[in-house]
Amino acid sequence: MNTGMETNSPFRSLAVLVMFAFGLASCQNEKDLDYARYYTNGKQLYDANCLNCHASDGAGLRGLIPPLSDTLFLRKNRDRLACIIKHGMNEKIQVNGKEYDQLMPANEQLPDIDIAAIVTYITNSFGNDQGLYDQEEASRDLKKCVE
Amino acid sequence: MKFLYLSASVLLLFSACSSKESKKLPILGNREAVEKTVDGKTVVDTVYQTIPEFSFVNQDSNIVTDKTFEGKIYVVDFFFTTCPSICPVMHRNMLKVYEKYKGNPDVMIASHTIDYKHDTPAKLKEYATKMGVEGTQWEFLRGSRDSVYTLAEKHYLVAVGEDKNAPGGYVHQGWFVLVDKDKRLRGAYDGTQADQVDKLMADMDVLLDEYRNGNK
To answer: Ranges for the Thioredoxin domain (chain B) (predicted)?
Structure first.
């Protein structure tokens, strides 16, 4: 009888864990779901539009293409990232203490919501942790782009 | 009967081993059979497609010709420094080849720019330096439109071209072409795929062995 209890207990703790996980998932609020949606779409869009140059790990390419792991740069320029993705960039910047001045091509075809997803993905990957950047924020920032 | 099977399988095993030892890369491109007279007898010899003479300017503004690559196996690709599409991936992968064979006197790399207007030697030098490439084991080459495009399409069998609608203004394929010391094509690998580039490096070792063992 005693031994039977013992063989059962791993299953029981597993069941408790699964229930706990479900419990957590249902506790996810609207914002968490939004974040997950943006982040997942952002990864797909990143792979299609950004990965060639910035690499799957965000490392860029030596001195030619800047990495996306400079958390301070991305935090300071959070409200400019949408414009940079949409219209490209042609200026000298300092990333991780190194200078980069290669032209970044524009992505005019991307709608605001896709740009928001990419920014969400980038600013929460490669060591960054900025949380959700939604379409509303993107549309607001994109109105302020200086060309 | 059993013994026969056994000996057959042993034989097979042996032949499998020996064929692995003398592994050779195929010779690609066009070929033609040419009749020759050797010691009074007519023999048929196969003539393979080879890379013709060429002359370009490299990142140091020096002239680089087919002679520069004499006695080397080399890898060729086509790119341009402002290329927004596949070039960064290609050169991220080519850097692996560069790092692996750095300092090996039998190996070189040649990257031809197809943007003859913008990619001056100074621009090529800047590009190479920013990628951390030193010296001239990896040559970045510039030539006239026709000389580069003809060499690409007729001889390295890589499609290149100008296209106003393409990102960056040029289109090209991402092949890494492997050329042997006799200027014959021995392999073509998709330079945008990491596993293909691993295959290239494995094949380069095979090719180097071919020459080391002296069995041409």
So the answer is: 45-209
